[in-house]
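Students often ask why we bother predicting the structure of a whole assembly rather than each chain alone. The short answer is interfaces. A chain on its own may look different once its partners are present, and contacts between molecules only exist in the joint model. In this exercise we take two input lines together and write out one structure for the complete complex. Read the inputs first and try to guess which parts will touch.
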Amino acid sequence: MEEKRWHKFYDEGVLPSLDYKNLTLPQILDESAAKYPNQTALLFEGFSMTYAQLKDSVDRFATALAALGVVKGDRVAIQLPNLPQCVIAYYGVLRAGAIAVMTNPMYVEREVVHQFNDSGAKVAIILDALWMKTARKVRDKLPCEHYILTGIKDYLPFPKNLLFPLVAKKTGMVVKVPPEPGVLWLKDLLASHGPTPPTIEWDMEDLCNLQYTGGTTGVSKGAMLTHRNLSCNVQQCRAWFPVVVDGEETMLSALPFFHSFGLTVCMNLAIYVGGAQVCVPNPRDIPKLVGIIAKSKASLFPAVPTLFTAINEYPGIEKNIDISSLKGCLSGSAPLPMEVMEKFEGLTGANITEGYGLTETSPVITANPLVNKAHRKAGSIGIPFPDSEAKIVDLETGTKEMPVGERGEVILHGPQVMKGYWNRDDETAETLRDGWLYTGDIGTMDEDGFFYIVGRKKEMIIAGGYNIYPREIDEVLYEHPKVLEAAAVGIPHPHRGETVKAYITLKEGETATEEEIIEYCKSKLAAYKVPKLVEFRDELPKSTVGKVLRRVLKEEEAAKAE
Amino acid sequence: MSSEPPNRVAFEPISRRLADGTEVRLRLIDPDDGPLLVELFYTLSPESIYNRFLTPVHRVDHRHIKRLVDIDMCIQVALVACIDAGDHWRIVGVARYHRNPENMEEAEVAIIVGDPWQGRGIGGMLLQEIGNLAISCGINRFSSTVNPGNAKLLRFAESYGYESTKKYEDGLLKMETELRV
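Now the answer. The structure tokens for the assembled complex follow.
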């Protein structure tokens, strides 16, 4: 790769260009299982599994999927929280040659129907409680031939597995699933199939994941990530972390695996480096999370600013709980305030770096240097990864590169950039031009090649690391029988970056409460998209010709905060 | 800047033909056009609605319709394009501008054409006529706030020789076009 201005800021040992192993993700698992067969691969609530056992389960599951008729290129949906089963399911799906459709466990019926149908999922692997709560209710609208279920207790050690129904009774996680045609259980499939999946002829350009991301049209679309994309990105992440020692790390997998960030930097990176990973399905339980860090002696912790902040503020964290095992952390999805970073580093002694990426880039493509603290810049998303490039181009045509310091659209290039959007040629053509990904983010580059995000080209809300398009929320609000007009807006939030607020005008003669609107939204939208605040207005602010002005609503909110 | 209060615009209805021979009549909007605007609304796809109002309006607001038809024809001006629907001349497109109260030489502009009639030159006719009308009233600049995802409109504006300065603000595209005689 030709010399770039940012290369001189790379940490020692990080090369501008990498010699990639041409391995698909299942082949990476094979490699780790061969090197570290007896090393712990997965940890969950006292349950543990070695790499040899993980590979065995993955192979058995792939064999079972093949027996169900899954062939190369079929789509298989996975809707699981961070549990050992999610890792087994994901690698099993890939080993069978299928394309994984990672699905947010928070999705409600409307969203599941869209994602399973848009991807054409032939099989879905779902947590039993989610099956009962969501997918089963809309089964007649789903394209899947088989549903493979698993319960949390399936991978709990004795006696936690026996106690689970009692302990978790109130959480809604204990369900009775009636036997129905087409509904199978993961544990039965693993027991009844041998570890002998059919051999798949791999091509690195084959699709690995359809990774769904919100869209400006209010409908989410699947980013087509290839084996090359995801394999290269995990290798780039490994290269960026020179502090990592292969075979010796413990990854705290607290970012959801269904999201590209958790997928690559937790699940896949842990497997690539032959590390143990602790599956954390609910990182919002901070007392438990810090307990897990202390007990597991986790060394790697990719997370979002909200989590670093919550740990910093956890009572007694400075004196009573030892989390000094942490040595490498990556923060993404929202800006990480310098004081949060410094406090966390002071608490743990870890190096923490801020990165940037999109679902469309597998996801990581820029980051600040991890080790040399003098080389990181506050407020910057860092410098491009090895073999990756970023440029700032003019907003109007996207063809002219902007001078240092001037605003423009951030465009990206690298081996981790997606192939396109599934069945959406128009949007692919708009987003991928001449091999460059047009992000829709507005940014600048300084003279050292560090990038900064200063705005967005599209109307988008980023709350707690999730991209939310206001139009999707508007569409749901407009379906409410009492609503005449609605506009969802992102307003600043101290921990979540932004939070969703809905402004509503009601039809003449109607009355409604904030709670009523929020409850209604909960039935139609995943929790992170649900407005946290609702304000009723006689009218929404509009331009002279009647266009709704969200900007005015945001300005009013900002003025209130001052 | 003009200090004279603007007069009510004058526009004699005109008749044009589309490439396929269909007759299109252009005239000023009338306060009685409400039902025809409602009829137009129901021909709009969700995309067209979103691009016009920047919100996915699902149902007609009669207060809003009244505001769209009941205009003074000096600060606000609207032209409609109509085609023969047998029993009536239905509105298939609307172009309107609204002068900037702080700078009367500037106006915000918006155009909508019902989905079944898009891509047939009706938008171009409306844009041309509303542009001429604006120029004759002393307006020298059109501004518009556009969904940046509305590629169709951006191509359309360019194809009609509207060279615009574009600025991205809060996820929207602000376009400004100098009008020339």
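Check your guess against this: Residues 51-67 of chain A form the longest helix (17 residues).
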